[in-house]
Amino acid sequence: MQYHIYKYIIAIDHFKNELYIFNNQTAGDTATDGLEKLEYLIKNKNFPEYHFQLNGEEESNLTDQQFMDTVDKMKQHIFRGDVFQIVPSRAFSRKFLGDEFNVYRALRSINPSPYLFYFDYGDFRIFGSSPEAQITIKNRVASIFPIAGTFKRTGDDEKDAALARNLENDPKESAEHVMLVDLARNDLSRHCTQVSVKAFKEVQYYSHVIHLVSQVTGRLHDGVSSFKIVADTFPAGTLSGAPKFRAMEIIDANENIKRSFYSGAIGFIGFNGDFNHAIMIRSFLSKNNTLHYQAGAGIVADSVPEMELNEVGNKIAALHKALLLAEEL
């Protein structure tokens, strides 16, 4: 876990095309010219631009057949009663030359999601366009937004509308979604009162997929810190399964690599206890001129391995497109 407090913050309102500069001052900090220096840098500093180029073919920790075999293995755990639902994943990597910031520029253009982020930690970078919150807390009201149920978009509005209706009525997708909504309710009930489902199975459209999304909320008990509920609801059920702990044990025993950044969370904490954390999906980790990315599929009793393989492909389609577009920038 890693959080940072930044002395200077530049906030950009993309809707109003306005830029704000903030200076967080600590006790004993008497400097008064920081904002002026930052404003000067914004107006006058020139940054070099570098191209991006893919270098070699995509690699994966699993073949298509191996992933489908994993789905069958997960179904056996479900039939034995170990879990009701579980989310195995598949990892990919691609070597590159140049500046991977162009990939982020491309990704935010073709897949504008609620959470767009780019963090440069020196020897590695994390960036993405995640559609899903891990948890949000505002004025001591916690919210989880389970996303479960995925169909690929066609590019035709009428066909997509028909697909959305099919998605809402699909027994497998509905079963998966209901389980994860129940899991979110159980997670919040440990530290909240007034737990309720504010929205259920709403259809949301993204650049390459259609999702079913719900909202579960609860008010924190008196004396419960925001950190406590954030920790106890992590990781998201939509990236692990139900029951969560047993699902994570099975995933750990069967996936041949550690998940690392994938299915983690990234976001901010307010000094007042507010939280806003995104799940790291539709995201890249860049290290040693290699981009790493990953996607999973929710497995229930009637899952079809070929369909789950396609779901993984649908989820990373925007990432693939961003890689190709970045070479043109």
UniProtKB/TrEMBL annotation:
Residues 64-315 form the Chorismate-utilising enzyme C-terminal domain. InterPro entries: ADC_synthase (IPR005801), Anth_synth_I-like (IPR019999), Chorismate_C (IPR015890). Its cofactor is Mg(2+). GO terms for biological process: L-tryptophan biosynthetic process. It comes from the Bacteria. One of its GO terms (molecular function) is lyase activity. Keywords: Lyase, Magnesium, Metal-binding. It holds the Pfam family Chorismate_bind. PANTHER family: AMINOBENZOATE/ANTHRANILATE SYNTHASE, ISOCHORISMATE SYNTHASE MENF. This is Anthranilate synthase component 1.
